[in-house]
Batch of 2 targets.
Target 1
Amino acid sequence: MSVMTSMLPWIAFLLPLFSACVIMIATRPLRTLSALISVAAVLGSFICACFIFFQKTSAAASISWINLGPAFSVPLGLTLDPLSRSMLFMVTGVGALIHIYSLGYVGADAGKSRYFASLSLFMFAMLGIVLANNFVMMFIFWELVGVSSYLLIGHWFERAAAADAAKKAFITNRIGDFGFMIGILMVWTATGSFVFAEIAKAMGGFAGHTGYLTAAALLVFCGAVGKSAQFPLHVWLPDAMEGPTPVSALIHAATMVAAGVYMLVRVGFLIDASPDALTVIAWIGTITAVFAALMATQQDDIKRILAYSTLSQLGYMVMAVGLASGEAAMFHLFTHAAFKALLFLGAGSIIYMLHHEQDIWRMGALWKRLPLTCLTFLIGTLALIGFPGSSGFFSKDAIIALAFERNRPIFILASFTALLTAFYMTRLVIVVFFGKPRSEQAARSGESPAVMVIPLLLLSIPAALGGYKFFAARFLTLPNETEQAAAVPIVALAALLIGVVSATLLYRSREREPVHIALFRDRFYLDEFYTFLISSTQGLLASLSAFIDRWILDGAIVRGMSGGVWGSGFLLRLLQVGNLQAYGFLFGLGIIGLIYFAVFR
Amino acid sequence: MLLFIVFAPLVTALLILSGAPGRVTALFGSAATAIATFTALFRYDPVPGGFQFVSSLTISESWRIHFLLGADGLSLIMLVLAALVLFCAVWFTQPVGKSERLFYACLLLLGGGAIGAFASLDLFFFYAFHEIALIPTFFLIGIWGTGNRFAAAWKVTIYLALGSFVLLLGLILLYRSVPVTARSFDLRVLQSAAAAGGIAPAAQNTIFLLLLIGFGVLISLFPFHNWAPEAYASAPAPAAMLHAGVLKKFGLYGLLRIALPLLPEGARHWSWLLLVLLSGNIIYVGLVTLAQKRLDWMLGYSSVMHMGYIFLGIASANLIGLNGAAVLMFAHGISIALLFALAGEIRRRTGTLAFSDLGGLGKVMPFAGFAFGVAAFAAIGLPGFANFAAEVMVFFGAFRVGADLQGLHFFQVTTVLALWGVVISAVYLLRAYRSIFMGAPNDKWNALPDLAGALRIPVILLITATLIVGFFPNTALRVLRPTFPATVAESAP
């Protein structure tokens, strides 16, 4: 029993890896079998996760990855506390539904085996992040989710946009991880450990080094900025929508992008120790929330609207972390995972039935054509805009109330973001589901197959009910309900109403976009700015270095040893004729001279 | 055991030159070598550690030169790398147009020279074996190379010969620096003499600098790196695999085996210089790599750049960094060999390696695309591959040197630069992958054949090797751990 119990987390963790390997090695040509293996693996993980969750398993065997004795040993150990148990349950649950949904969505794709192998690899990596008990192990799986995300965004790699988006996502994440790794090294230097439980005990190592602590905390936060797509590294997420829609639901909405938030909560003892770091984190979250919501109001691609909305909601979570409430962040992470996965899968259902049409202005009146999709999409929308009684209402209001209590400017911006959220989602729903069909496909579409609709129905349950205490408290430590000033619910409700009503008035029975705000539509020109920045710094430096290397270093050391005496023509001739002795002698003389000056002078 | 490992490739080369069929003999010879190295790896007993499988043959008593072979963990890891890459390079050799026998013999000499150097415990033969490997390099590039092959062949030979010359100077000084009674070419004797404080610090500084430059030229240490990209771009793929993957590690092996344990004071004295130069490798050469427009040149520069990480592990001179450096030597050897092999296959099919000419090959060559992706991600340092495990050790090892909580010092700053280099690697490798394998298929390449079944075997071998060490670094550390504490004093954090 005890052996079984301690092995159970490992089984849950390794099943998807096993599936990925089997597909890659053996069943690539058998596409349906590959898909079924992958689905079976994730269902197996989910069942294990259920056992772990309900039996409150708390121990798992640990193995050694790098063993250099006492000086440096990296274990691969699993954390099983309430936080990771719930997360395990959520990730495998949502993952299972999305795997099943994928059976329909990529049913006829030639790269189906590759798709499911990558999806399994992703599940493995994500479970690694959830279960990791130390920084190095977390970093390992952090990188692995990065690569599985790369593979899945680039699934249709022959499309230039998808190939570019995959590369951009990976590199942007790498930039975040650059900071993350420095942060890990700094924490290790100060506390002598990278195992979370040991760091928490050794936080005294930072005593008297506030600046160092703040730097370390913020560098660790850099990892989350990349993975959770926070400003200024958010640019990859909207482009990542080039991947298949179930991937967008699973990776780029429900789980991977939430990993940054999860990591911050996991190392809360580190972050919370530095008030300055907390302030920066809270503001980064706020900026992301507001800017992303502004950009969302002007997008026309249904998936991009949802992507910006994901950015904005992640901003809320990071804001909560920065306001020193990991509970509120996790609460919103959970409800968001349910309703955003639901929204993406709903969007996928539409896109699938409309033959990969993603422009909302070529949809319209779809409630008649896809009634179940429409119904579940509405449930998701209500949750996202925080309609009273829906899951998002509870979790988002918890964050807004927190902001009211701890930081008024953030409270105002958070409420404004809520207004914008209500606005852009109402716009989306009206344009897509109501009015008149604006294209041939929209007029003739039907409902998606059952394998895609059933996950929608199942996900709408937590999206609707996930916020109620009787439901949520099973999974999470809920944030303490503070004595809320009456202002908070009133402001939140007002923001919601203003957003919904204004969008309704503006977009009811429109044929095309009535408002044009180029700044929002073109994402504040940040992508252009980055392109310029990279080409003017790194690109320029690269060309310059290449020039130096080719013409100056190579020229000076190899061809120019004889300097102006004979000129390079002679030496080039030497090179061709191959007068080894003369040439070698000169070069050797140079080196000896160099050493002479270095050593004896 | 070691006698067989060292002589198998050389004897095979002689057999081929004297008329045995080229490919079959070479395959058998290199396979036997590889199997023998694996056997030695498993039979090595880490509990006593030290040099095992020692065999000795006196050549000249008066000159105190002995043919002395022996291997510890570090040598074994390098031997396994050399034999494995040699076998794969032989397998990857395509029908050669002119004098096929000579080609195979050159490959075997190149690999065999490296193997001999890694197994030698005697300074004289350590040096001589490396010289043996230089000659076939010249022929391989000069006769079977592409592009401006004569210039490249001369350039690499002259560069390496000069590096060897400086190295020789250093080794002679080293020999003369120990007290007359302790003078020997036997590394073990020299080690105990050095441990007893036989080499004066001032002499250490001079000799270490000579060795650093001598070995550095062979490793393409910045700014002595210019021979490498051109040579690798011109060399036939199997030669590039062997040279970039294996022979280049000779210099690093020498630093780890000779310079660091015998001259610890010198190493400490010059660590600032090494840090500056290795930053040049990582950042400057990294940027140069970014600017490349052809795959072969890009890979050549990237192999120069990645030497910086191994140097960083060596510079840290502590248990963590040195083990990391050793594993990284292995890891880099595997990944760069695989990349050069695949680049060679692409060039053979398309006749070009310019990024602008290629594109969409993933559709027509799915296996090659898969393998290149794996190798590229290994080189980027993705977890799961040996490179990542090694780099983690290098970074942790380097970051701790001289660390306090007041700020970042020289070692920390260099580590941070090296971490930024990881970003640069990701940019150029993914850019290469994007422009070769992704994107819309080009009509010109619609009929390209994928890697044939038989060619997949060496690819899978190399991938398996890097995955095993990546997933279970302890397999390599088992034999490496006893090597470093014995030779290098742990520098306290």
Target 2
Amino acid sequence: MYLTNEEEKALDGEHGEVVSLAMRILCALGDFFEADRLIPVQSAHVSGVSYKTGGEALLTTLRKFSSMKAKALVPTTLNPGGVDLERWREMGVEEEFFEKQKKIISFYTDMGILATCSCTPYEAGNLPARGAHVAFAESSAVAFINSYLGARTNRESGLSALASAITGKTPCYGLHVDGNRRPTVKVKVTASLESPTHYGALGYLIGKNFGDAIPLIQSGRPLPLVEAKHLSSAAAASGAIALYYWGEAPGDSDLEKVEVDGRSLAEVFELFGLSEEPEVIVLGCPHYSIHEMRKVAEMVEGRWVKTPLWIFTSRQVRHLGEQLGLVQKIEQAGGKVFCDTCPIVAPLKGFRNLLTDSAKAAHYAPSMNKMESALLSTDGCVRVALRGVQ
Amino acid sequence: MTKLVLRGFGLKAVRFPVAEGEAIVSNSPISFLGNVDPETGVIQNHPLEGKSIAGRVFVFPTGVGSTVGTYVIINLAEKGLAPKAIIQRKADTVTLIGAVVAGIPLIHRVTPDPVESIRTGDWVRVDSSKGLIEVERNKGGWESG
């Protein structure tokens, strides 16, 4: 990979030890994937925040970066950590875990990274424009900003996104290059997409079957924000989808065509299931938008949930929900609205299984939470919460 | 004993590019977060459930899922439980950065297809500076496979 004089100097340590370390990571990446050069990024989004998923290796890595006085050169946001930083006790999390979590976040904050602690940075001000080059980790956000916003990022590792935050650069290869962004398979959807969860199930199926392809998905239906979040997150969890097109795409002729009918979508729901009644209902993977919160608030208003109902969102959306009285409606009905964390990276203590409206959360629950999981639409989930154990 | 030579594109930014060990081969992709227990190196919720990648040459098609998988690899390395080497049909950033930081030789774009031609239990020697893979099979030889 070609480096400018200035980049050579940065690599050799003239801009400090930590910039040199970040440059070494980016050069290893760029050389391996045969990038021709480094390009500037407008912003970054870093994953690797929860102590549960990052463990001691994450603390050690961040301690190293922090001791070398790392600073983010471009606006950078942060993924969810393992606890709600204000209401962690209600989550049944131990103090030791909380302290380690706080330490991780303070390392990032010291680097000048905004501790947004959300997987939906595009709803918290990190909203890259069409064509903008950025370095995003968080697989669901990668798929969302490439596909829905038309911004450009590869599926960065938490650590390569951090290296880009520090240097303001990323190797130019993969999805930064026009010619690599053309669709590679056409998916014709004849199944009816009745709820955002169905879009999640569709994403799950596409990720599972096409790995890291670039699908052009045609359903004859629109793709609103909430539906796009579910589709993006599931396709990037069961597979490695980083970019898809909805409806139409450049150069879409002569593509292999695959059909998704109602039966194959139903089979995604059937992949999951509980052997006992659900012990907790988990919503907000990806972090709930205000529209989703309003829907749940309206369903539970004046009633009482008989099964614990936990909703995860960004602090920003929670504040808005409080101002609009939505959080109060949900919590007066016995539900809880948590932020800074999510169903996958939080320890979720005290439950043996979960019911969710998120295909991504259902996918990760058996491995990340050692819990059985079932998948239902938001309506279905809230109805079960209100009905309780039969 | 018979020997097979495969060639691919290797990671050069690793201090010790030569490694050898027993192969563990997965036909399906891996999400290091979720599919590999960071405390033990044992595979979970995956067709290879219960098998360990610690100290093995880990062969799999590509990485999928979470972008935090890099830290699972670094955690394994700090406990001495990382794979000796990684061979992928197609490398992904999450696995690659883990290999760079943990100093694990990694080779991808291999001919013939490594997932098809290497079997679990084969003895594999890699040199990632040259993109070279040598495979030895004790039982059955190549004719039966």
